[in-house]
Amino acid sequence: PVVPVTGNAVERTDSRSTWAQFLSWLECVCVVTFDLELGQAIELVYPHDAKLTEKEKTSICYLSFPDSYSGCLGDTQFSFRFRQSIGRISPDFGEDAYDRDAPVTLQRDLGHFYGYVYFRQVKDVSVKRGYFQKSLVLVSRLPYVHLFHTLLQIIAPEYFEKLEPCLEAVCNEIDQWPSPVPGLTLNLPVMGTVLQVGTTPQSKHRCPLGCHLLPAPTLLPTIHELDLFKCFQSALIHLQVLWELTLLGEPLVVMAPSPTMSSEIVLALVSSIAPLKYCSDYRPYFTIHDSEFREYTTRTQAPPNVILGVTNPFFIKTFQSWPHIVRLGDPRMAGDLPKQVKVKKLAKLKTLDTKPGIYTAYKTFLQKDKVLIKRLLKGIQRKRPSEVQSAILRRHLLELTQSFIIPLERYMASLMPLQRSVTPWKTPPQIRPFSQEEFMATLEHAGPHLTSMLKGDWMGLYRRFFRSPNFDGWYRLRRREMTQKLESLHLEAVCDADLVGWTKDKSEVEVVDLVLKLREKLVRKTGQLSVREGAVDQLEGCVQTIAAALPEDLQNVLHRHRP
């Protein structure tokens, strides 16, 4: 594939480091066009010195256009996700308050980029092929699907009319935005509009200079949530199957008629297990040109634990060996209700005209929630607004996931050593290892039945979950948080200890060793650990006092070994 920049990149004499605010939201903005000689090509990248590798540019090129089978005329919006190049240094956001405070499902993705696409294909007699084809793409590490697609609806139509100057102005506006802060409502001005975004209604407001002069803000109730009801409307009676397959990180292919539908459904599946983070790879829109195509479609090994969204019907043959395939068509009505797909045997998945359905041999561990399904179907008949239906659906999925995860959280907390066992004179005590059998024994008295009405084999679901990437990711995260908590407690205990008194009857070698260890602890740990205000300053002063009492030759040794 050829990925030249066919137009002139917008110039800005400032170095990339001056784009700090822009970079807290976006990596770059790309314009992808169809060139008769080159095929899909990047026409423009902004900022002009955005550090994309050739492989990343190729991915953006191919993923920014619907494939020819989708037949997308007019304006189309969809999302994709691609792996950053090997060897690329992940950005250092420093002591990033955002990732520290954001829910795990909204943290920056340091291994992948998201692409948010606004594609336009319209008849144009002035073009040789007879069609104008172009995509405006926002590339970011943030999973803010709703915010970025709303932003594209504002800027893309204007860009297609006015081109470069418009894009330059928009990027300069974004560079004036405050950084994203969890729990804070932000006013984000763009092209004469103000988008008001936040995670809590009671949040304080932060507004860039001059935005109070603009019109009343457009309130975005969410930055990342999708219309779940719209996504799942043709599979409402099989929600339990989809939730369990996602929870267990099973290999899953979603075949849809358009990249809009494929990307929305893949992202809806990933969000269905929130607040648990989906820890495997997922591709909202995946094509044969994807850099991981061979890796993910090889038949020499078991299918990988990924969710792929595809639109090319020839993928049916490629993915015949996969255990779970969701084939969807355009939503159709059966009377006044959406026509529901059926669960079918994999053996029936053979031809290109395969009918919509969930092709799997998987049997759910838990029974479906018939009350929920009845409530949603009744809502359709009563013409209940989609956002209300989505809220009902989201609450159900949240409560189901929380019912599943709370016993694990409770057991994990019991593995933490008692605070009184943390002393300044010993290394922090160890967290007890996770025992699956010990955890299972807690379920009789403290299991999910306390918070969920769903019947079924919860223990079987946990045993299967223990073998999944999602358990591994959850456990690693919790253990890291607990280790940091222990180290914080230990650091506070050291800060409160009478270190000067302890040194009085110790040899000079022991005192030097203590100073070196404390300095190393201060340098390495204080950036990551949460300790009470003033404790670290107190400890640093104490270390200086101890060091100053040593003979001059030993002070020189300490100076040479300063970390």
TrEMBL record:
One of its GO terms (cellular component) is recycling endosome. Residues 27-476 form the UDENN domain. InterPro entries: ABL9/DENND6_dom (IPR018307), DENND6 (IPR024224), Tripartite_DENN (IPR037516). Pfam families: Avl9 (PF09794). GO terms for molecular function: guanyl-nucleotide exchange factor activity. Belongs to the DENND6 family. This is DENN/MADD domain containing 6B. It comes from Gadus morhua.
